[in-house]
Design brief:
The structure holds two protein chains of two kinds. Chain A is mainly alpha-helical. Chain A is 68% helix and 6% strand. In chain A, helix 2 packs antiparallel against helix 8 and helix 8 runs antiparallel to helix 9. Chain A is globular, with a radius of gyration of 21 Å. Chain B has a single domain, classed as Arc Repressor Mutant, subunit A, CATH 1.10.10.10. Chain B has a three-stranded antiparallel β-sheet with strand order 1-3-2. In chain B, a hairpin with a 2-residue loop joins strand 2 and strand 3. The two termini of chain B are 19 Å apart. Classes of the chains: A mainly alpha, B alpha+beta. The interface between A and B is medium-sized, with 16 and 19 residues.
Chain lengths: 251, 115
């Protein structure tokens, strides 16, 4: 992320030096945006590969091995406390390429790897369900935010087109900008999902912290990713709930 | 107490055992709690365990609930001495069960096999 930021800043500073070029050339480059928009969409998909890859994998895997549909006893209650309706079963899969639970915000399906059901306690699985239900709850909002990212990047690209003539700079700066802003949105979405269940008293923060501590011990490095903040940061954030009964006011 | 290297061995060993109880024990904090409870000469209460394993008391309480449910520790309420209280305060006292000894023995064996 730091590297991307440095590249981005240096490019922006560089483009300012090119400001005195003929305006016709600059405006012509703005027309190239149609082509670059395609690259933007590609970068979005690439950034969310973590979940997109799992969804694609599950589509192919599910053709041969039907996932088990299971209703968790507490699921409806959790959803109700979170102020939403959810009456779909959780899809339990043995697909080895699915390493963690995920939500398809378009179909509202929650997929759980069977190994997670075995290795976590019932209360911890409820906390994970709460997290995934929050993704369902904020699904439309999240899609809206992704669209907003596209438009903001487009605006940035148009602005950039008025001050630079280099296509290379144009493309790199645009993608770097998009990666930064998209990563922020995706990470914020995860933090919001972490907070939602415990904040609504639907699940306990202890259970979710317990899950994160387990995952942190399992992985060698806890650096987070473009889509997920580091587990340590997520644990620290949830720890605030342990010392406070005023959960809604704390967020 | 638990070292990182030992814990990694346990993690590897658990992949071989793959049982419900063993999976629950595999949690790093729970493992530390179990060791703490087992090594203590007398039943410990939540605050004492939290201090020993350097975790939040509410987190420890959650793990104790889980461990009690699967029968690895035994909890009962009793009086403990506290500063400023002549009669003591009511606390949840935790002690190990025979099942815990069995499970930890299985883990030790599995770790030895991995080594």
């Amino acid at each position: 992320m730091v590297l991307i930021s440095i590249v981005f800043l240096s490019i922006v500073l560089g483009t300012n030096l090119l400001f005195f070029l003929p305006s016709a050339m600059r405006w012509a480059l703005a027309l190239v945006y149609v082509l670059l928009a395609e690259i933007m969409v590609f970068s979005v998909v690439r950034l969310i590969t973590g979940s997109a890859g799992q969804i694609i994998s599950s589509v192919f895997y599910n053709r041969k091995h039907k996932p088990e549909k299971r209703y968790f006893p507490e699921m409806k209650q959790i959803a109700k406390k979170m102020g939403m309706e959810y009456d779909k079963p959780i899809l339990i899969t043995e697909n080895p390429s699915i390493k963690s639970p995920f939500t398809n915000v378009f179909t509202r399906n929650i997929t759980f790897p069977a190994s997670w059901i075995r290795k976590f306690h019932r209360t911890e699985n409820d906390a994970i369900i709460g997290h995934e239900l929050a993704h369902v709850k904020y699904g439309l909002k999240f899609i809206g935010e992704l669209l907003l990212v596209t438009f903001v990047t487009w605006g940035f690209a148009l602005l950039l087109a008025t001050i630079t003539w280099s296509l290379g700079i144009y493309v790199i700066a645009e993608l770097a900008f998009m990666m930064l802003i998209l990563s922020y949105i995706l990470r914020r979405n995860e933090l919001r999902a972490d907070w939602e269940g415990p904040a609504c008293n639907a699940t306990t923060p202890e259970a979710l912290i317990s899950v994160f501590e387990y995952l942190k011990a399992e992985c060698k490095r806890d650096d987070g990713s473009e889509t997920h903040p580091p587990l340590e940061a997520r644990i620290k954030r949830l720890m605030r709930l342990l010392d406070s009964d005023r959960r809604h006011q704390d967020n | 107490m638990v070292t990182v290297k030992y814990y990694r061995n346990v993690v590897t060993a658990m992949k071989i055992i793959d049982e419900g109880t063993a999976q629950i024990v595999m949690h790093p904090v729970r493992f530390k709690i179990l060791q703490c409870v087992r090594e203590a000469s007398e039943p410990l209460f939540v605050e004492q365990i939290a201090k020993a394993v350097e975790e939040h008391p509410r987190l420890v309480s959650h793990h104790l609930d889980v461990l009690q449910e699967i029968g690895l520790i035994d909890c009962r309420y009793g009086l403990a001495k506290a500063k400023g209280s002549a009669r003591g305060v009511a606390v949840r006292l935790c002690s190990p069960t025979p099942k815990l000894t069995e499970v930890l023995h299985d883990i030790a064996e599995a770790v030895a096999e991995v080594r």
